[in-house]
């Protein structure tokens, strides 16, 4: 596997000034030139040498110079994960069944993929060009959990044994442990899993089943503190897990392969997707993944914690599950499961002929803890309710057979919308997959180039030309290629900033307004391309007052843009969306004219 390159210092500093230039005034650019030159001549080389030493050690350890920086940036997040870095995905699901059957089939297929990983049976992955992809992110399939701790969270690794593995099922606020493999690590039969889920629904729907909530006589919702910021959640865990029974429940949750969340309410896809990403109680956000199934409609989705896995890996895992046949696909799965070894006992837990082991999971909390937790959850719900998701669908830009990047065209439309709505441009982030390198994650591509800005201004003014379009397309391609070659600037600058600070060197170049402008993403954008596996997803904006934008080309022959925003953008988001729609139309006219 190729090591992640560490770019030359001089190259990164020169490219940094080029990339940040559209975001600065002339006076600001002149100041940036001065501090960059000072850093290059004095403290920069020492910071680069420190990074190079880290890179050599990390490469030998199977990591990269970015690995520790990446984990630190995620694990020190103190705000609630669903409102910061977690992602809610909608899934394209290939089966036509609904309700319980759909939930069982989805859980069974994903259980098989997770168990295949634990047993070491997943083939190495390659890119569309045939390059080997790093498989380290796939470790999230073994379960485990991000555990909130004061100041910096920790990652609890999943068990590497496939035997007697469980999943946790959420329904109506209650949690259940459901066994999905036998003592030989073989997945339970689909019918057995279906009956196990049926027993969960029967238990939560029983006349004498306690409701979940925060009032007297109600059962504590199983998601409990999991939607709170890490410092707050860590305090609750220290209190609650001092009880041995609670600690045992938490251990089972940690070891679970995944969480399966079953939704009762029928809703449109947009509503379900938003709730998958942000609504309290749908997931356990510190777990790597929660799969979500609507019982009253065809919705399927997933809630993903982003520290370990990126979108490209998640998309590949979903593809494996989608493509599995319903019949067992490996010999050991075809062998008969000894139901006596997985049946429930006589302790009042749901049980029955052909049902795998199902056990309720409950937290034992004092009235004081429940009261405080109720107030904190209510505060989270108020914050979450302020997030809005605006969906825009437009005809695609027909290129008439010309080779034009659909990604670039959509980014130009987004830039046009920013410029027309706000009269200026601010930093835009676009994620680029870097799994072709050992421990590769993503790189930040900055699509706001001088060429793209010139095109966007001309689109606003109505005088765009083929030459402006070609120049913007060429620069967009060049920046993507730079990222794929490990020559982009954002991650390298992060490493230099951390090294300079730890060595006690000057950080003037990072205290400069230019660095803040570049790394404060007014628009955080990302795309997985097509909707074959994952049609759409939502995530919170990464800066206060900013916008999160998911975009892509759909099989319906449309572009789709999901614009996620907080209350700061309520007054102008419709103008932005209208400008985005108009930008696509103007690009279509330009391409048709130049054709």
UniProtKB/TrEMBL annotation:
Superkingdom of the organism of origin: Bacteria
Stretch list, region Disordered: 322-358
Gene Ontology MF terms: carnitine O-palmitoyltransferase activity
Stretches with biased composition (Acidic residues): 324-339
Active site (catalytic residues): 306
Keyword rRNA processing part of the UniProt annotation: no
Keywords: Acyltransferase, Transferase
Family from the record: Belongs to the carnitine/choline acetyltransferase family.
Name of the featured protein: Putative acyltransferase
Organism: Mobilicoccus pelagius NBRC 104925
């Amino acid at each position: 596997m190729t090591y992640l390159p560490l770019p030359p210092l001089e190259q990164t500093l020169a490219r940094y000034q080029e990339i940040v230039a559209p975001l600065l005034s002339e006076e600001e650019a002149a100041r940036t030139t001065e501090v960059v030159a000072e850093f290059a001549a004095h403290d920069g080389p020492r910071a680069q040498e420190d990074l190079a030493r880290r890179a050599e050690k990390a490469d030998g350890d199977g990591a990269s110079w970015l690995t520790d920086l990446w984990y630190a940036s995620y694990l020190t997040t103190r705000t609630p994960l669903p409102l910061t870095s977690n992602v809610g995905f909608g899934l394209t699901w290939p089966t036509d069944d609904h309700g319980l059957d759909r939930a069982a089939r989805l859980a069974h297929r994903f259980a098989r993929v997770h168990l295949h990983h634990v047993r070491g049976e997943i083939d190495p992955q390659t890119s569309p060009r045939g390059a080997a992809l790093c498989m380290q992110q796939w470790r999230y399939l073994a379960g485990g959990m991000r555990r909130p701790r004061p100041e910096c969270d920790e990652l609890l690794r999943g068990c590497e044994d496939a035997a007697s593995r469980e999943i946790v099922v959420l329904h109506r606020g209650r949690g259940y442990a459901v066994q999905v493999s036998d003592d030989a690590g073989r997945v339970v039969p689909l019918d057995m899993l279906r009956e196990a889920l049926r027993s969960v629904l029967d238990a939560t729907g029983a006349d004498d089943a306690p409701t979940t909530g925060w009032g007297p006589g109600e059962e504590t919702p199983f998601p409990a503190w999991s939607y709170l910021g890490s410092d707050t959640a860590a305090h609750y865990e220290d209190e609650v897990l001092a009880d041995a029974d609670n600690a045992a429940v938490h251990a089972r949750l940690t070891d679970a392969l995944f969480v399966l969340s079953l939704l009762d309410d029928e809703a449109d896809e947009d509503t379900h997707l938003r709730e998958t990403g942000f609504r309290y109680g749908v997931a356990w956000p510190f777990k790597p993944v929660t799969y979500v199934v609507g019982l009253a409609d065809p919705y399927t989705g997933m809630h993903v914690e982003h520290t370990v896995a990126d979108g490209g890996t998640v998309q590949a895992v979903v593809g494996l599950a989608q493509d599995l046949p319903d019949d067992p696909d490996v010999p050991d799965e075809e062998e008969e499961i000894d139901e006596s070894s997985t049946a429930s006992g006589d302790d009042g837990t749901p049980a029955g002929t052909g049902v795998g082991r199902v056990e309720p999971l409950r937290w034992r909390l004092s009235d004081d803890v429940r009261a405080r937790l109720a107030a904190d959850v209510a505060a989270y719900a108020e914050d979450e309710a302020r997030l809005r998701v605006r969906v825009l669908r437009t005809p695609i830009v027909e290129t008439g057979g010309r080779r034009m990047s659909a990604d670039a065209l959509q980014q130009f439309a987004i830039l046009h919308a920013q410029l027309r709505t706000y009269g200026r441009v601010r930093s835009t982030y676009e994620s680029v997959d870097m799994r072709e390198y050992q421990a590769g994650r993503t790189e930040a591509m900055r699509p706001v180039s001088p060429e793209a800005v010139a095109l966007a201004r001309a689109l606003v003014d109505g005088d765009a030309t083929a030459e402006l379009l070609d120049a913007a397309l060429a620069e967009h391609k060049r920046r993507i290629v730079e990222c794929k070659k490990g020559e982009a600037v954002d991650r390298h600058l992060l490493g230099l900033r951390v090294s300079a600070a730890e060595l006690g060197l000057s950080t003037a170049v990072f205290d400069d307004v230019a660095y803040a402008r570049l790394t404060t993403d007014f628009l955080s954008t990302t795309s997985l391309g097509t909707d074959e596996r994952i049609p759409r997803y939502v995530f919170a904006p990464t800066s206060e007052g900013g916008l999160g934008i998911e975009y892509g080309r759909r099989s319906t022959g449309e572009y789709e843009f999901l614009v996620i925003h907080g209350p700061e953008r309520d007054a102008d988001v419709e103008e932005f969306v209208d400008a985005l729609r108009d930008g696509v139309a103007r690009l279509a006219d330009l391409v048709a004219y130049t054709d």
